[in-house]
Amino acid sequence: MASFSTAQPLSLPRHPTFSNPNQPTTNNERSRHTLSLIDRCSDIRQLKQIHAQMIRTGLFNDPFSASKIFSIAALSPFASLDYACKVFDQIPQPNSFSWNTLIRAYASGPDPVRSIWVFLDMLSESQCYPNKYTFPFLIKAAAEVSSLSLGR
C-alpha cells in the first residue's frame, strides 16, 4: 500500500535562470530564503523541490549551499542514502565536510563497511584530506562490523 505525505509543498521564490550554469549565485535575499527552507523541510519530497530550485537558479554551484542540502539528504530523520549519493555526485568538488557527511551516513546506516570504501575514494579521487572529524566515523564503522584490524 502506497504511503503519501500530507505535507504541503514549500513556497519557493522565483528566480531567473542563469545563462551560465557554472556561474555561482550571489548571496542575496532570495538565496538566503531558499537556504532557510532547507532547515524547514519535513520530508524528502520538499527537499527535492528545493534541490531542483537550487540547480535551476545556480545556487547549487555554491559549495556551502550544495553541502547544506547534501547533509540534510544524508543525515535528517527522513534521509535517503540513495538520494544523498545522487546529490553528492552532483557536487562539482566535494569538500571535506561533504566527504565526512557521506562517511558518517554510511557508518550509521545498514552497511557501515561502505563508509570505509567512501574513505578510500576520498583519498584517491579527491583533493580533500581526512581531518579530525573523519576518523571517529571510520572507527564507528569498524566497531559496527566488529573489526579491530579495520579500525587500525
Automatic annotation (TrEMBL):
Protein name per Swiss-Prot or TrEMBL: Pentatricopeptide repeat-containing protein, chloroplastic
Q: Fetch the PANTHER family from UniProt.
A: PENTATRICOPEPTIDE REPEAT-CONTAINING PROTEIN, REPEAT-CONTAINING PROTEIN, PUTATIVE-RELATED
- Work out whether the entry's keyword set contains Repeat: yes
Keyword Chloroplast present in the record's keywords: the answer is no
Q: What is the lineage of its organism?
A: Eukaryota, Viridiplantae, Streptophyta, Embryophyta, Tracheophyta
Tell me a Gene Ontology molecular-function term this record carries: mRNA binding
From the UniProt record, list the coiled-coil ranges: none
Which portions of the chain have biased composition (kind: Polar residues)? 17-28
Q: Name one GO biological process term.
A: RNA modification
Where is the region Disordered?
1-32
InterPro entries in UniProt: PPR_At4g14850-like_plant (IPR046960), TPR-like_helical_dom_sf (IPR011990)
Q: Which UniProt keywords apply?
A: Repeat
